[in-house]
Write a structure and sequence with these properties.
Blueprint (H helix, E strand, L loop, with lengths): L3 H18 L3 H7 E2 L6 H7 L12 E2 L5 H14 L2 H20 L18 E5 L8 E7 L2 E8 L2 E4 L3 E5 L4 E2 L5 E2 L3 H13 L2 H7 E3 L44 H6 L9 E2 L5 H15 L15 H5 L2 E6 L7 E7 L2 E7 L1 H4 L2 E6 L7 H17 L1
Amino acid sequence: MTDAAREVADVMAKAAREWLDSLDAEQRRLAVGPAPGAGEAAEAERTTWYYTPTDHGGLTFSRQRPAQHRMVMRLVASGLSEAGYNTVATVIGLENVLDRVEDFSVYWGRERSRDPNMYYLRVFGEPGGTEPWGWRFGGHHVSVNFLVVDGRVAASTPLFMGADPAASPLLGGATLRPLGAPEDLARELVRSLRPEAAERAILLPRPPYDVVAGNSPRVDDRVIRRRELWQPDQNVPDRPDQPHTFLDDAERRAVSLTPPLKGVPAAELDAGQREVLRALLGTYLARVPEGISPLSRYDDPAQLDAVHFAWAGSTEPGEPHYYRLHGPRLLVEWTKVHRGANHAHAVWRDPETDFGGDVLAAHHAAHHAAHHAS
C-alpha cells in the first residue's frame, strides 16, 4: 500500500528544490523563510495569510524569469488536484478580466493594481530534509498553504479561492464560472430543505460582507477590521476601520463560529440532500490530490452526520448570499456579495490544525523527548 502523503511530499520537495536552486541571492532573500517551528516570530510570519491584492510575502512572478515562473506553477500543481490547479490558474488569469471590468482604472499605489504577476511564493525551511518544511503561494483570491512533517504532507489549509468576476461571458453565449459548482450545489441544498429545517439553516436575511473567519491565523470569533485583510502599510479601500463582515453585534452573534454549531446537521437531511452535501464538500476537499484529501472521511455516515449547513441572505440566483459547512476538523465558508453579487470567496479550513500547528508541536515534542532519552 502506497503512502500518498509521502509521495506528494516527495514531488513537492523536488519541485521546490528545483525552484530554489534557480534563484539568485536577491531572489532567495524574498523566497526563503525560516523553518516551521523556528520560533514565535517565524510562526507568526508563516501563519499570516491574505486573499486580497496585497503583499502576501515571498517572491513574485514579476521578479522571476519565465523559466522560474514555470517552476512555481509546477510546485503549485504538486499540491493541488488537476481541477484545483486549473481553478487557481483561471483565478490568476481573471486579474486581466477584472482590470477590464474596472475600465483599467483602479490604482492602489503600485504600477498595476490588477496584476497576474503579483502572486507570491515563499518556501519555509529546507525541502526534503529531515526537519519540517512548508510553502505558501498566494495573491489576489488565492492562498495555498502546505506543511510537510517527517516527509509527509501534514497540512493543506487554509486553502482559499475566489473569483471576481464570478461569472463572465465567453464567446457563443457560454459563461466562465470558475466557482460555479460550489454555488449551485449549495443553493440546490438550501432550497430543498423542509420549511422547519430552512428556518434553522438560514441564520440571517442578509449575508455578511465576507467570510466570517476572515484571514485569521486560527479560526475564532475575533472581530477583524477590514484593514487587517491587507498589509499594514497599504491603502485599504472601502471603510478600513469597519468590521470586515459589515455586521452589527446582533448579526455577528447570529453567524458566530462559536459552539454550538449553527445550521442544520446532515443527520437531519434525507438521502438525496446528503448526496448533494457530499458533492458540495467535494468542491472544496478535492482541491488537493485524492491521496491527501480528507473527502473520504465523509464516506462514514457518522462523520457526515456531524457536518452543519448554514446560510445567510437570499436563496434566489443572482442575489447576495453566504453559506458555510462546519463540523469537527472542517470549516468551509462562501460569500458572493460584492460587485452586484458577482464576486465570490470560497475557503476551506481545518479549525483544529490549520497550518499544521498540532502536528508540528507533536513532532518537536517527540524529537525533544528522543534527544533527552539519548
